[in-house]
Amino acid sequence: MQVACQRIADPCLQPKNVYVRIGTFQPADTGSLGKDSLLPNPIVGYAETNQVIYIGGKKVKDFYMQVSPMKDSVKWFITPDSTMAALDTITLYYQRNLVFLSKSCGYTYNYVINDYKYTFNRIDSVKLINGNIDGKADVQHVKIFY
Amino acid sequence: MFSMSKYFTSILFLLFSFNLHAQDDEDETDKPAAIDSFYQLRIGFDISKPIITNFVPERQAYEFELDFFRKKDIYYVLDAGWGRGYQDSSYLNYSSSNTFFKAGINKGLFTRLFPNDWDQAFVGVRYALAFIERSEARYTIFDSFWGNINGTIPGKNLTAHWLELTGGVRVELVRGIFTGWTIRGKFLLNGKQFKDLPPPYVAGYGRGDKNSIFDFNFYISYAIRWKKKGL
Question: Which of A20, A59, B123, B155 is deepest in the core (most CB within 10 A)?
Fold first, then answer.
């Protein structure tokens, strides 16, 4: 139990969790970058646990998902407009790397995505942009094209 | 508060040492040729580190300094000591212990004015070596979504070496008894090996996860002197 004036040596002040940033896109007329695509009423979650992380209500184009530090793969489900009958799944296969953060924060896991597969009920294609999941800000890792 | 008193004490001793030199000038009677007529061997103990341990128990150090005056303004210096440190949090739990040795010189900033003038202000340099024993580390990665993960990192023996730039003063309070401070800028030369898991604390250096450190010592010292042969 923490009490007032108790000295905490070197408190951990940095974020420890890392996320996979997923963007949704429409194919562009030229090039391969794609145009941002706001999903009208998306539902996104973890397939193995049936746990929903994002559920409709507003238009979004970026999702932040976690991968499991206990396994070497993770499977997500995603649907752009709450049509549960037309769910797609995306499976990432990755390598886990134990990383020392600091004395006060201890360790965390970073990940390197080696492979991925997906279904294409509604999805046109998926592209892995950056496979290093290491907590760097403003890095998009996966692009989903509809 | 602690750092304020440190700087206050430092300034006080600096001024005190200048003051003694000023008084000595007025009483000067000895000839310059006799100034270097004695050797001096001095051993000091850093009293600040045990005091700090009372407030920061995860850092424990005992530091000694041996210096030898042979001639002119040069003092040959050996430092040695030991200590231990630990990190005890919900994320990480491990400890380390080490011994250290330093060798170098101090050069007096002011010319000695007479044979009994042993007060000094100095700058110096050291090369330092520490032998570190790091224990097995137990870590926990807290994850409210997937569940917590516990693990261990094996213990390891490490060697650290670093350079120091020093400066300070010594004042002889009564015959043979000195006090004074040394400030030290420390620059770790092989910090790369600590990247995976640095020792929590390295006696003689400081935090193992820093590549450069500013530190200080406050010594109580005892000196013995003997006359040079042929003088």
Answer: A20
